[in-house]
Structures are given as structure tokens and as C-alpha cells.
Amino acid sequence: MSKIVVLGGAGFLGKRICQAGVNAGFQVTSLTRSGKPPRGVTHHDAHWLTKVQWQSADLFDPSSYKHHLVDAHTVVHSVGILLENQNYKTAVNSNSSVLSEFVNFVKPSNPLAKIPRNTYTEVNRDSALLLAETYVAETKVDSPSFVYISADRGFPGLPSGYITSKREAEVELSLLKGLKCLFARPGFMFDEDVHDDTMRETIHKFVDALDWGNKTLLGSRIPVLNDLVRPTISTQRVAHEIVDSIQNNRFNGVLSLDEMLHK
């Protein structure tokens, strides 16, 4: 049985990659700070949660996870930050007042109180390079492969450092010798099994409405608008396409949002 190691396997997308891996017959190990299964999942998830090896690891300390990489056929980096402001993850998944949470979401963080190792460069780029380099040094398998969760593109109002750090990571990872890399580029993601009244769900509906209007009313005839308004995609869909690529050895660079949506 081939082994997949997912760094960030209890996260919003990471847990669905673990699920898809288990369903496809892989041995799956999740590496997170706590080493615990994700919270807030549905009762439908019980069948696969027990089949994942939930292990603790320090993102920036290879000694805490390198032994898990030795026999891994594929390693997935599913860790990243959208904003350097720590409020955003809580705000996006909160079901309190959308307006108040949106204020917290966009409010810039105090640079004097910035948490160490919480910048785009460190989390989105450097941690991926550290993981990949450690994997190359430790692996004993033939043709090891690496999946990096990148992004379709930036969003209006989002700091340029976000997409810059993603693209820099792609370039640096592609230069590593002896490693096949796949760069998955999803857009705004939602979970098919979660329908709570959260800010994430509000954004999901809003973006879908914009995309529908652009395609149906405007016929996608305005290039600038096409670049700004992009379709959403479920975490289940992204995870399925990633695992499908792993199964079929389709590690040929970029797995775009459009490819994932239209396969």
C-alpha cells in the first residue's frame, strides 16, 4: 500500500485530502501541531478518520517529522495563510455577525505584535521548501512525489505577498532534483458537507453569484472581469483531483482551477 503524508492534514483542505487518500486505498499520515483529528466534521466522516495516522509535528523542525517521510511515496504540503493577520481564519469560519467578522477579517494586524514565523514568506514558501528538502534527503522510495497547494491567483484587496509567496514556492520546488512536483491551484474553496451560516459560506454564495452574472449576463466577454471573478470549488473536488493525479502519476507541473473543475 502506497503511503501519503499530508502536512496540515487536519486543516480545511488537508482533511479532505486525507479522506480522498484513504478512500483510494492509500496509507495516510497527517502531520499537525496537535496531532489530533480535525474537529467539526460530520458523522459521515467517522469511517475514514480512524484509518488516518494522526501525528504531531513542528512545521519548522524537520527532526519532528522526518522519520514519517522515509517510506512515503507522496508528501503533500497543505499549510498556508491567506492573510498575515491571525484574525482571518477565525472570522471566515465564524457564524457570528458577518459584518463584525468581516471587520476583523480585513483589519490589518499590529506589526509590533506579529507572531514569529507567521509571514507569507515563512509559511507559504519556506515551510514548503524545508519539507521538500527534508523529504528528498530522507526518502527511500523510488520516484518520490510532492504536492504543493498553491493558488489560482490573488484576490482584489489581498496583499500581493500572498500570491508572490505561492509562485516563488512553485519555482523553488520545481528546481529540486529527484522530486516530481504537482502544484494544485484552487480558487476560493468551500466544503460540500458544511452549510452553516458562516462568513465562508456567505463569501461562497457571493462569489458564485458574481461568477454566474459574469458568465450568464455578460457572456464572459470582459477579460479584466474574467481575471477578477473566478469560480469557487469544493475541497472534496480539489482533494479528488489531487489524489487522482497521484494515482496516475500526473506530476507535470500545474493542476489549474479550470482543469479541476472541468475534468
From TrEMBL:
InterPro entries hit by this protein: ComplexI_NDUFA9_subunit, Epimerase_deHydtase, NAD(P)-bd_dom_sf
Gene3D superfamilies in the cross-refs: NAD(P)-binding Rossmann-like Domain
Annotated Gene Ontology cellular component terms: mitochondrion
NAD-dependent epimerase/dehydratase domain ranges (all copies): 4-80
Signal peptide as annotated in the record: none
Pfam families referenced in this protein's UniProt entry, alphabetically: Epimerase
GO molecular function: protein-containing complex binding
Source superkingdom: Eukaryota
Protein name (record): NAD(P)-binding protein
Taxonomic lineage from the root: Eukaryota, Fungi, Dikarya, Ascomycota, Saccharomycotina
